[in-house]
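SEQUENCE-TO-STRUCTURE ENTRY
===========================

Subject: a protein chain together with a token-level encoding of how that chain folds.

Sequence line: the amino acid chain in single-letter code, read from start to end.

Question of interest: how does this chain fold, as expressed in backbone structure tokens?
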Amino acid sequence: MFSPNNNSQNGERKSTGQIGLTVSKPQRSSSTASLSNQVFGKILIIGEKLRLSFHNCSPAMVKDRRYHLRMYPKCFVGSEAVDWLIKHGSVKDRPEAAAMLSILQRHNVIHHVCDDHHFKDTYLFYRFRVDDSTLPLSRETELYIKGHQLCHEQTRLGNGSIMKLHNDFGAMYEKSFYGTQLVNWLVTSGKCSTRQEAIGLGKDLLELDLIQHVTTEHHFKDERLLYIFHPDFIQLKIIDLLEMHDRPRSLSLDTNMPTQNQKLLSPSQPVRPKSPQVMDVPVIAENRPKFQIGSPEREDSMNFTSESDNEDVSSSGSQDVHGPSMLLAGFSPTAEEMKNPDATCIRQTVKILGDSVGFGFVVRGDGPSYVQTVDPSGPAAKAGLKTGQFLYFVNGEYVLNKAHVEVAHIILRNPHQLTMDVLVPRHQVIKNR
């Protein structure tokens, strides 16, 4: 998990909401917000709208499900999601609906419960990453989700909402609110502990174009100035995904995209059961860390040093062509064997600057951990990180004997910068020459 760096002297403030994260004070205005970040934010918001719809429909589509005596908390069925989109999402056919859900998976909004399948229009279980706390968080990710939550709550309040029709110098603005009203509501509802904290959140939302002054003349202030939630985000629909799918890259540290020929040691995957009685038994979800690399379901049931015998490029195009098992074939050392790695490996230092969606790689292994996947267009690839390399030191901390989940927590303490010493197998170096 993140270790917040509370350093007010450096101009940092805490972004508030259900997801706590210390972020640096932004050095830009809303007019210079990254187009890529805005597109990614829209995809996140569409995912949140869909998640709330799946939770609130009757009967609820997101629920705890049983397969082979095992419970899968807070998941939905792929074919049922396609059915819902056909009925409610203005989608013309099943392939188009499946394509939209695949886009959400590629952008880390949903994932298969064991991370073993791309999205398929069949009886497989999928889950929203917000529901199992595996969504990789950046400042923008947190604020996009928080902004949508605030807008959604105000819309549901009806007549009690601060969003009303207001007259400002003869101009009428629907669903507008005063800055001081938003601050009051954030404090009285307990979402922010102080007015200063609420003002900071309002400024954060405006800087990401989630809210705006009605004439765009003012930043967010705790004053009688009118603001609205940005129409571009309020009016988003699931069908809009088709216009965005090829824009931003979003493979991140938490992503584990499967391949066609993977042979996994995870439990049998959910398929349509012969008896309906084995499904939909409620269970209390396990307490899990917010940030983890890999499937929560597989964590206690498989040896992460054993992966596939062969791996292909995933259909999303975001995986490195060289899978870890190809590079590690015949070379699966223990942490003890690698304490003096000079004979078998070459040590290299890699420095990675994260972007808004993460560092762009996946790790696996129960000690030593190794790089399983590198996004070819991500920060890790640009820094020279390769699949099959073992993690030796992470931000100055010795990790050779640590499992990948623990290593993930260390990495995510600083989501912006990462320095790693990696061990490169000599046969890999020779092969790459």
User: Anything to note?
Assistant: The two ends are 38 Å apart (CA to CA). The domain at 324-432 is CATH 2.30.42.10 (Pdz3 Domain). The first strand starts at residue 12 and ends at 15. The chain has two domains: 1-248+259-300, 324-432.
